Amino acid sequence: MPPNAPPGLRLTRLTLRDFRSYPALETGFRGRIVVVTGENGAGKTNLLEAISLLGPGRGLRGARMGELGRRAPAGPLPWAAAGRFENAYGRFDIGTGTTPAAEGCGSAERRAWRLDNIPLRSAGELAERVAAVWLTPQMDRLFQEGASGRRRFLDRLVWALEPAHAREVAAYENAMAQRNRLLAEDSRDTAWLAALEDAMARHGVAVAAARRGLAARLNAVLAAGVTGAFPAARLDLLCPLCEALGRDPALAVEERLRTALAANRARDAAAGAAAAGAHRADMALWHLPKRLPAELCSTGEQKALLVAVVLAHAALIAEARGFAPLLLLDEVAAHLDAPRRQALFAALAALPAQAFLTGTDPALFAPLSGLAEGFRARPGILVPDEEFPLPECA
Amino acid sequence: MSESEPIERLVGLLAKLPGLGRRSARRAVLRMLMQPEALMLPLAAALREAAEAVRPCAVCGNLDTRSPCAICRDPRRERGVICVVEGVADLWALERAQVHRGLYHVLGGTLSALGGVGPEDLAIRPLLARVAEDGAEEVILALPATVDGATTAHYLTDRLRPTGVRVTRLAQGVPVGGALDVLDEGTLAAAVKARRPA
């Protein structure tokens, strides 16, 4: 794609008030690729987090409301983040931040959203307008840590495409927690247990089916080589429920899970957790040219695999929503060797998506000079980086 | 703001009610204080009267001044059909809609292992006794479409099975007057699953 073709979705202005390390920030973005460099603690990730919060969800750190306000002696301050976006149909403003808890209605602060300054009842309405995918250094440990982190990663991928997935996961976990409680209390109420196992079976199979669908779509994109010079990859679900769904109708899989849960009550009570179900799923990412699972690849190769997945996911969202999501790539260049960095930059230049990249070392981004807009992050502010003359297309 | 003690007490009591925060409670109190004779004393009398007279119906759990309640006593009601609801608010909603001509049974909640609500905390035993003794033909489970509501419905279906009564549940799907494109995926999926011959 030529660099001056109009992107699907573009953030052109960001305003922050008392958000993390930023007391007040107002900055415009004119590049389709934006590079933010700065020392550790300068606020680069905070900036990406603020952008990630302009859509539904808890952003790229999964932070709670109380963690987002700038610290003051009396506690975190109320915060606000606002973005101006442009898409094929014009421009619109999205704002989010703290609503002061209504007097007498409890102390919990709630997050509010505004679209063109009109309050939204829920963030779900934003999903049609904005989307962002991200890669953060925390994900570097994805393949070393336990399965729960990978399951969350997988569920976020599904959720970005199927908003109802979050509700199914929550319903499943709710039913499972209740069953665990009954088993821990040594309840003999088999009708109650059976009712909860029925909910686990229904929601668990829905969760597994959604994960299976995502894996199939993602693998199709990965196989088609949309991700450019990144290694061919394949995502395998390690989940008996997903495998069963490949062989049998969903209702039969539900019935089997129901039966298995009922049969294993004593064992599950002793273990304190259910031995079978959607919460046992794991995933493996394969480096196809090397025929190695990601956990056996080098750190740089793992990063390259994750970049491939994130780019493929962005392509899926673009296909589903009709616009390419924002790409937020935190410290992504650090682990990549020069050819891979070049491949990443080439892939970003070819994608219709607007990308925000951060890093400590401006030299790593030198190949983007002339293509990208650059900023230096200093505590609380962003300064245009003269090493990155504004691209002519802007 | 200086609020003398009776006002503050009134605001505090009103603010405990669902849907009222301190701000709305204060507004209501101010309004009443401007017309104590017209608003406040009649309200006080009505509150006292309701508190003394209204009690749960011993049969169905509805709130009424008499037990059995007016619905349970009504000879025009279909006595063979019992609609099970979570609370009195749901019973009132169904009555407003005038869609159910049978009797009701108020459970008083839904099963929640995490919330410490078990079968013994709900009016399940009285329901089973009613069905067995009165020979009901159908029990309609009108419970919320939440995990706890579905769990309770499943539990009741299981416990009612030995009585042989027909157990039905409310349908889930497209709301009346609703467009399809604004429905969430979960509701759409439920509607497609519950489709029926046209």
From TrEMBL, chain A:
Compartment(s) where it occurs, according to its Swiss-Prot or TrEMBL record: Cytoplasm
Principal subcellular localization: cytoplasm
UniProt keywords, alphabetically: ATP-binding, Cytoplasm, DNA damage, DNA repair, DNA replication, DNA-binding, Nucleotide-binding, SOS response
Domain RecF/RecN/SMC N-terminal positions: 11-359
SUPFAM superfamilies tied to this protein: P-loop containing nucleoside triphosphate hydrolases
Entries under PROSITE patterns matching the protein: RECF_1, RECF_2
Annotated InterPro entries: DNA-binding_RecF, DNA-binding_RecF_CS, P-loop_NTPase, RecF/RecN/SMC_N, RecF_2
The keyword Nucleotide-binding is annotated on this UniProt entry: yes
Binding residues annotated for ATP, in chain numbering: 38-45
A Pfam family assignment: SMC_N
Role according to the record: The RecF protein is involved in DNA metabolism; it is required for DNA replication and normal SOS inducibility. RecF binds preferentially to single-stranded, linear DNA. It also seems to bind ATP.
PANTHER family to which the protein is assigned, alphabetical: DNA REPLICATION AND REPAIR PROTEIN RECF
Family: Belongs to the RecF family.
Protein name in UniProt: DNA replication and repair protein RecF
Record organism: Caldovatus aquaticus
Species classification: Bacteria, Pseudomonadati, Pseudomonadota, Alphaproteobacteria, Acetobacterales
Gene expressing this chain: recF
TrEMBL record, chain B:
Stretches assigned to the Toprim domain: 80-175
CDD domains tied to this protein: TOPRIM_recR (cd01025)
Gene3D superfamilies listed in its UniProt record: 3.40.1360.10, RecR Domain 1 (1.10.8.420)
ZnF segments: C4-type: 57-72
PROSITE patterns: TOPRIM
InterPro entries in alphabetical order: DNA_Rcmb_RecR, Rcmb_RecR, Rcmb_RecR_Znf, TOPRIM_dom, TOPRIM_RecR
Keyword DNA repair: yes
SMART domains: TOPRIM
Keyword hit for Metal-binding: yes
Stretches assigned to coiled coil: none
UniProt keyword list: DNA damage, DNA recombination, DNA repair, Metal-binding, Zinc, Zinc-finger
NCBIfam families linked to this entry: recR
Family from the record: Belongs to the RecR family.
Role according to the record: May play a role in DNA repair. It seems to be involved in an RecBC-independent recombinational process of DNA repair. It may act with RecF and RecO.
Protein name: Recombination protein RecR
Species of origin: Caldovatus aquaticus
